[in-house]
Amino acid sequence: MLSAKSLFQEILDDDESFALFCSIAASGESQGGWENARIAELVPETQRALAPKITRHGADEDKHGRIFNALLRKRGLSPVPVPPETDYTMLLERSGIGLAHGRLRRDEPLTVQDIVTYLAHSRVTEQRASEQMELLRRHFADDPELGRAVRMIAGDEDNHLAYCHEELLRFAYAGHGRAIQRTLRECALAEIRVYRDVSLAVMAHMGRILNWPRPKAAVLSAGIRAVYAYERVAGWRRMVSLRMPERSNALGGPATPEPEAAAG
Ligand SMILES: [Fe+2]
Ligand SMILES: [Fe+2]
Questions:
Q1: What is the mean pLDDT of the chain?
Q2: Cα(257) to centroid(ligand 1), Å
Q3: pLDDT tens by residue, 152-203
Q4: What pLDDT, on a 0 to 100 scale, did the predictor assign at position 263?
Q5: Residue 211 Cα, ligand 2 centroid: separation in angstroms?
Q6: Ligand nearest to the CA of 57
Q7: Do the Cβ atoms of 66 and 23 come closer than 8 Å?
Q8: What pLDDT shows up at residue 260?
Q9: What CA–CA distance (Å, rounded) separates 224 from 210?
Q10: Rounded to the nearest whole angstrom, what is the distance from the C-alpha of residue 220 to the centroid of ligand 1?
Q11: Gap from CA of 214 to ligand 1 centroid (Å)
Q12: Distance 26 CA to ligand 1 centre (A)
């Protein structure tokens, strides 16, 4: 039977598909780490209080990248090149969502509007990250190979999402509500398209590696398109709502180090 769990299990059981899965994940995480580190360095004077949280956000993403690479090493595998059509972070940046990398490379302080853009972009992408990790946590939390890594990353992504809600609400109360709503909507509508395209591309690669029969590949791509259709009509709204998280100041304090087992 074709379920999310059986699909993941199949990808995780084969060295080549596992290497591609971990490499794509590690690359996305470390791009996120770089972006956050640069944003933390360029925070405008009036928002200094936010800098340590952005640094922590970046440190978490870098740690996730290291964890995915460590999972590869533990299996005796090396990272493989990430096909550009599967590069979610790069494709989002190319479609003009979030802060452009060219802007982040310049040593020029960001504006408050830039910080709002960064937080809105993160609100949307962290929702995706936290939902994807929740799916993995549901099925693999007790897996001897992946369990600790999955639990740790899933917990971190939940914190990132909570932090985005809290900080965006703070900016909304300070009068940025309309800009936030506009930016969130733009980000969400772009993200669901990029997510569909990347999912189709990843599944095409996995299908080739795992020799999926044509009907199976067809069912999967129909499923991905159906998710997009739902998100385009209604699902995107879950990515733009704001509510005070149960856990406040989720990124106060330093990053928790990765578990020995995953780092080893
Ligand atoms: Fe992450
Ligand atoms: Fe994250």
A1: 95
A2: 14
A3: 999 999 999 999 999 999 999 999 999 999 999 999 999 999 999 999 999 9
A4: 45
A5: 32
A6: 2
A7: no
A8: 57
A9: 18
A10: 25
A11: 33
A12: 9
Higher pLDDT, 261 or 113: 113
How far away, in angstroms, is 160 Cα from ligand 1 center? 8
Ligand 1 centroid–CA 213 distance in Å is 32
**In angstroms, rounded to a whole number, what is the distance separating the alpha carbons of residues 189 and 64?**
26
Neighbours of ion ligand 1 (CB under 5 A): 29, 61, 64
CA–CA separation, 116 and 184 (whole Å): 10
Cα of 33 vs centre of ligand 2, distance in Å, is 9
**Which-ligand-closest: CA of 153?**
1
Taken in order of first residue, the domains within the chain and their CATH numbers are 4-241 (1.20.1260.10)
Ligand 2 centroid – CA 137 distance (Å): 15
In the reported structure, the alpha carbon of residue 107 is separated from the centroid of ligand 2 by a whole-number distance in angstroms of 24
pTM summary value: 0.94
Average of per-residue pLDDT across 128-136? 97
